[in-house]
Design a protein that fits this description.
Layout (H helix, E strand, L loop, with lengths): L8 E4 L2 E5 L10 E4 L2 H9 L6 H17 L6 H16 L6 H17 L4 H34 L4 E4 L14 H11 L4 E5 L6 H12 L3 E5 L4 H6 L5 E4 L3 E3 L4 E4 L2 H11 L3 E4 L5 E2 L16 H4 L18 E4 L6 E4 L2 E3 L3 H16 L1
Parallel strand pairs: 4-5, 4-7, 5-6, 7-10, 8-11, 10-13
Antiparallel strand pairs: 1-2, 2-3, 8-9, 9-12, 13-14
The structure holds 5-S-methyl-1-O-phosphono-5-thio-D-ribulose.
Length: about 350
Amino acid sequence: MAVKKLRPIRWNGGIVYLLEQRDLPFHEKWVKCDTVEKVAKAIEEMTVRGAPAIGITAAYGVALGAVRSKNKNASVFEKEVKKAISRLRRTRPTAVNLFWALDRMEECLKAVSVLPIAEQKRALEKEAIDIHLEDEALCNRLGEHGGRLLEKAKNVLTHCNTGALATGGDGTALAAITHAARKNKKLHVWVDETRPYLQGARLTAYEVAHAGIDFHLITDNMAASLMKQKKVDAIIVGADRIVANGDTANKIGTYALAVMAKAHGIPFYVSAPTTTLDLIKKNGDEIEIEQRNPKEVTHPQGIAIAKESYPVYNPAFDVTPGKLITAIILETGVCRSPYQKSLRQALATAKKESM
Ligand code: MRU
């Protein structure tokens, strides 16, 4: 029997509906966003999260601002849409997909600015829907390329959430796992709980269970011991930003996994669409890392485990050096070192394909 696809972002009648990811896996509740501010808050406060998903949501946020605008004057309308774009740019700093999507919406606005307002609204709405649909197609291609790399693996370890909840389709790293699992029924997944926000425990376990794949949930500090026991054949993660030399920002804890993989001779794969590439930046030192609320550490899921008054360090992401990454899976294919060359070629191919 076909498994019903999870799709956490819906656009209907000029309104964005988001599956409330903070309530998962226990409750499936939908949040209605009918203002740009509500969309921005939903991104900041993690109702929706995951690099491609926040890009798609932000694009819909711009479309919403345009479609619901009551302005009849073209230049006031343009200012209002630009204001929405700048508000959405200030939501989360690390995942480049957000900025990629907003840049694309801004280019669309510029391209249609000579048209009547009603047509501009239609064009912006279509652009956001296209971004969403294109991401779904990118996920399918990532799944095919990544799935081939994992086909022979018995035990795959993954970190954070990279499935349907984080994208517009079936996911990035998780799409590779689900593709491989279709061919290899014995595939087993180690799901890192992903402290402190627990995307693995709450979301990836939910998605992997939904897909009917064999898995165990582990705490992050169990990974090294599993590797030593030869119980991990490959590690695959997603990405929030990949720069020119292959350095990759992803969920905090990813770097530690890459170091451990190197020490144990285990392949370490990153899977992301080319919309996650930021080749203007030369290396990972140039990536801004989001610092989040200390309460996510002292009060995970609202439960106090440390005094609120304690000083806390809570970066949402870390950077894994490209030299620790065995391969970067993009929709155009599998890139290997030297990344300066392979990523540039992949981006050029993706641009050609989209023309
Ligand atoms: O803070 P989050 O939950 O938005 O972080 C998500 C991740 O780090 C994912 O691994 C990343 O976005 C890649 S997934 C599609």
